[in-house]
Specification:
Elements lengths: L20 H6 L4 E5 L2 E4 L4 E4 L2 H4 L8 H13 L11 H13 L4 E7 L2 H18 L7 E5 L8 H6 L3 H4 L9 E4 L23 H9 L4 E6 L15 H11 L3 E5 L13 H5 L5 E4 L11 E6 H7 L19 H16 L2 H17 L7 E7 L2 E6 L8 H12 L2 E2 L1 E3 L2 E4 L7 H17 L2
Parallel strand pairs: 3-13, 5-6, 5-7, 7-8, 8-9
Antiparallel strand pairs: 1-2, 2-3, 4-10, 9-10, 11-12, 12-15, 14-15
Helix pairs in contact: 3-12, 4-12, 5-11, 13-15
Bound molecules: 4'-deoxy-4'-aminopyridoxal-5'-phosphate.
Keywords: Aminotransferase, Pyridoxal phosphate, Pyruvate, Transferase
GO molecular function: adenosylmethionine-8-amino-7-oxononanoate transaminase activity; pyridoxal phosphate binding
Protein name: Beta-alanine--pyruvate transaminase
């Protein structure tokens, strides 16, 4: 089916996010339909979705249960005020989410995105300590190469230079742990052996600032957006131990690792490390409608529930927190994951994925490969003086050849929907291999 492609003149008004706007508008890449594992482009081509949209469409596209749930909810009640009013689906969803989360996570606060989940978790962490009479604990600790969304708290605890340097002052009182991507771990399949000691830097920060100034440490169990950094064996456990020892909250940013991407509902279960809070979004609604959540322990929630009952406990929230249509989409999404046993499916197919991704080792320009669950990364040797260009050229060629990948710097990241078939893995990896060999 040939579909009309809008002319560049139609594209002027939209200032696109994280996009080279001028370049894009000269040769736009337009997606107009999506079904299962495939997008359809405006010129009628099928493109295999190797990235689950932006790490979010874990159940694949146009899932009937989700489509119907949205339509039904829109026709019953489109919106309800989020403050001092409720509606049943948000409560139902919160219960389902905490049931899915690790034992000990008991409450859910709703947001509209990963970025908002991060801001919410950071604010809850500081306010929690204050509620417990520990108002000096305001310092936040993130990690180099961490991605925690794009709002001011998130870019402050995040560790991506480009996301920070244009925007003036960051939050005060933020430190960063070293990232965990060390040369000893090159070509590792799954979790690397070396680097658990990198968590000990938290002890150094405690020694430097005093534990009684530190509210929380936030990390992604697997860092995705900065090129797929897999935690070394024992690293997350060590971080948990040190945080617990010093009364510091541990926040797992599971915006990517949540909802089955590692083969468990959350990364916390996969790595068997219990955080105090989990931030999530993306796969919560299969990417269909913006929604995020912060999941917390009872200890955190209950610290706020102490004052007079008629007073608001947490001065924070969004117009669309727990939005009815988003809640309906999320409930249908969780049901789809359950009905199709997609988290188990991810765990089952992950070994095949691992071998496929690592089969790219001998292709041109490849200097490292990493994987975990249904996540894979292929790192390319940058072109001297032109970083990012080789990987971006790979992205463009792959798209021409009918597969969607993502690039960050000179790293190609892949994270297909959890419904991917082996033949589609072969298509994705086979095409990428051809693309790599054709690059300058
Ligand atoms: N945290 C992590 C770990 C993420 O990967 C992302 C998005 N890639 C975010 C936060 C931000 O999410 P959003 O784009 O929905 O604000």
């Amino acid at each position: 089916m040939a579909l009309d492609r809008p002319t560049p003149n139609d594209l002027r008004a939209f200032w696109m996010p994280f996009t080279a706007n001028r370049q894009f508008k000269q040769a736009p890449r337009m997606l107009v339909e999506a079904d299962g594992m495939f997008y359809t482009t405006s010129d009628g081509r099928q493109v295999l979705d190797g990235t689950a949209g932006l790490w979010c469409c874990n159940a694949g596209h146009k899932r009937p249960r989700i489509v119907e749930a949205i339509q039904k909810q829109a026709s019953e009640m489109d919106y309800a005020p989020a403050f001092q009013m409720g509606h049943p689906k948000a409560f139902e969803l919160a219960n389902k989410l905490v049931d899915l989360a690790p034992e000990g996570i008991d409450h859910a606060f709703f947001t509209n995105s990963g970025s908002e989940s991060v801001e919410t978790a950071l604010k809850i962490a500081i306010a929690y300590h204050r509620a417990k009479g520990d108002a000096g604990r305001t310092r936040l600790i993130g990690r180099e190469r961490g991605y925690h969304g794009v709002n001011f708290g998130g870019i402050s605890v995040g560790g991506i230079v480009n996301n920070r340097r244009h925007f003036g002052a960051m939050l005060a009182g933020v430190d960063h742990l070293p990232h965990t991507h060390i040369p000893e771990n090159q070509w590792t399949k799954g979790q690397p052996e070396h680097g658990a000691y990198l968590a000990d830097d938290l002890e150094r920060m405690v020694a430097l600032h005093g534990a009684d100034t530190i509210a929380a440490v936030i990390v992604e169990p697997v860092a995705g957006s900065t090129g797929v950094l897999i935690p070394p064996k024992g690293y997350l456990q060590r971080l948990r131990e040190i945080a617990t020892k010093h009364g510091i909250l541990l926040i797992f940013d599971e915006v990517i690792t949540g909802f089955g991407r590692l083969g468990s509902p959350f990364g916390a279960q996969h790595f068997d490390v219990m955080p105090d809070m989990i931030t999530c979004a993306k796969g919560l609604t299969n990417g269909v409608i913006p929604m995020g959540a912060v999941l917390t322990t009872a200890a955190i929630h209950d610290a706020f529930m102490q004052g007079p009952e008629h007073l608001i406990e947490l001065f924070h929230g969004y117009t669309y927190s727990g939005n009815p249509i988003a809640s309906a989409a999320a409930l249908a999404t969780l049901e789809t994951y359950r009905e199709d046993a997609l988290f188990e499916r991810c765990a089952e197919i992950a070994p095949y994925w691992e071998e496929a991704v690592h089969s790219l080792k001998d292709h041109r320009h490849v200097i490292d490969i990493r994987n975990m669950g249904l996540i894979g990364a292929v790192e390319l040797e940058p072109i001297a003086g032109a970083p990012t260009q080789r990987a971006f050229a790979a992205f463009l060629k792959a798209y021409e050849k009918g597969v969607l990948i993502r690039t960050t710097g000179d790293i190609i990241a892949m994270s297909p929907p959890l419904i991917i078939e082996k033949a589609q893995i072969d298509q994705l990896i086979g095409t990428l291999g051809e693309v790599l060999d054709s690059l300058d």
